[in-house]
TrEMBL record:
Ferredoxins are iron-sulfur proteins that transfer electrons in a wide variety of metabolic reactions. The keyword Iron-sulfur applies. InterPro entries: 3Fe4S_ferredoxin, 4Fe4S_Fe-S-bd, Fe-S_cluster_ET. This is Ferredoxin. One of its GO terms (molecular function) is 3 iron, 4 sulfur cluster binding. It comes from Streptomyces spectabilis. Its cofactor is [3Fe-4S] cluster. The keyword Endoplasmic reticulum does not apply. It comes from the Bacteria.
Amino acid sequence: MHITVDEQSCVGAGQCVLSVPDVFDQDEMTGRVVLLQGRPPADLEDDVVEATRACPAQAITVTDD
Ligand code: SF4
């Protein structure tokens, strides 16, 4: 799995950070998403897919390697 995020679309809602804190963080100044790892371990992939669906701004994209 490969993750990309669109910081410009992110509205800082923070669901992704709550769902998968090992993968997503938020910028302390802007509140926008910060991607911690673009290729998560397999055991986090389901949570990342769920976070992608839950993002209100469609700011997270996952693709297969
Ligand atoms: S869930 Fe979407 S809008 Fe909210 S912080 Fe994460 S990327 Fe940004």
